[in-house]
Amino acid sequence: MLQNPVIEVNGLTKRYGDFSAVDGIDFTVGSGEFFGFVGPNGAGKTTTISMLCTLAKPTAGTATIAGFDVAAQSDQVRRQIGVVFQEATLDNRLTARENLAFHAAVYHVPRAERDARLADVLDLVELTRFADDIVDNFSGGMRRRLEVARGLLHSPKVLFLDEPTLGLDPQTRNRIWEYLRRLADRDDMTVFMTTHYMDEAENCDRVAVIDRGALVAVDTPAALKRQTGETTLDGVFLKLTGQAIRDEDVLTNKHMSRIAAKAKGGR
Ligand SMILES: Nc1ncnc2c1ncn2[C@@H]1O[C@H](COP(=O)(O)OP(=O)(O)OP(=O)(O)O)[C@@H](O)[C@H]1O
Ligand SMILES: [Mg+2]
């Protein structure tokens, strides 16, 4: 049992029609822990994060963040969390600073603290020099770093990141990890991150493997290797989730649920 659980998930389920994208998962994440969430395309990672971040309503089960229920106490939950989404969420016509200021206003960062918080997060992701440039001119790596800064703006207790390092060069990936490590150490922040990069999962304190909506393993990278008799996490991943490519599943599921929705009179 973990000493200080900050995320507690029990029987969490998300169904679209007859299809369970997330099917009764249970796990706990401790305060200050780096928790990796891995699984093939369409496994249910983004759906799980969406429920934990109060953006999607669970069909069944419960989840709490710092003791607050994601369904019944979404406002309190939102105050505890930062989110870095899989898709870009920045306004390219605005400067880095303007993007952050907008987010600070939406998240009610007190006016008196705003300038200091903005300076702090820009400094952390090494974008102070570019604070007043419009995001449209930024490289992919700079945009990603700004997304991370945005997620950190209201000093979250838990930071959720959905594939934050997708498509980034190794230098930028390393830097993003350094920023997160520094904050986890400095502020005891908990990091919940999905990734398809097993070298990143290797750096997590614990890793959960999800496949077809079900959790198939949760443990430290070393224990997962020991249990499966594999020498690499790539090997563990393939052993636990098989060799098949999942694209067709994903299309079939979306297609089927669209048909079901139509049948019910939806779009
Ligand atoms: N709104 C929706 N309606 C129907 N099915 C959906 C919906 N959203 C997601 N799904 C299905 O739920 C499953 C899980 O999707 P999810 O996006 O959580 O996967 P993922 O693990 O994040 O995948 P990836 O690695 O590709 O990001 C997929 O089969 C997907 O097609
Ligand atoms: Mg996803």
Outline the fold blueprint.
Elements: E1 5-16, E2 19-30, E3 34-38, H1 45-52, E4 60-65, E5 68-69, H2 74-80, E6 81-84, H3 96-106, H4 111-124, H5 140-152, E7 158-162, H6 170-187, E8 190-194, H7 198-201, E9 206-211, E10 214-219, H8 221-228, H9 233-241, H10 247-263
Parallel strand pairs: 3-8, 3-9, 6-7, 7-8
Antiparallel strand pairs: 1-2, 1-4, 4-5, 9-10
Bound molecules: adenosine-5'-triphosphate and magnesium ion.
Residues 16, 21, 39, 41-47, 249-250, 253-254, 257 line the site of adenosine-5'-triphosphate (ATP).
Regions with little confidence, pLDDT below 50 for 5+ residues: none
**Secondary-structure class:** alpha/beta
* Record field, number of beta strands: 10
Per CATH, which architecture?
3-Layer(aba) Sandwich
Q: For the largest beta sheet, what order do the strands appear in spatially?
A: 6-7-8-3-9-10
In CATH, the topology is named Rossmann fold
Total helical segments: 10
Describe the model.
By secondary structure, the protein is of the alpha/beta class. It has one domain: Rossmann fold, CATH 3.40.50.300. Helices cover 41% and strands 24% of the residues. It contains 10 helices and 10 strands. The chain has helices at 45-52, 74-80, 96-106, 111-124, 140-152, 170-187, 198-201, 221-228, 233-241, 247-263; strands at 5-16, 19-30, 34-38, 60-65, 68-69, 81-84, 158-162, 190-194, 206-211, 214-219. The strands form 2 sheets. It has a 6-stranded mixed β-sheet, with helices on both faces. Strand 7 (158-162), helix 6 and strand 8 (190-194) form a beta-alpha-beta unit. The longest helix has 18 residues, at 170-187. The site of adenosine-5'-triphosphate has 15 residues, from helix 1 and helix 10.
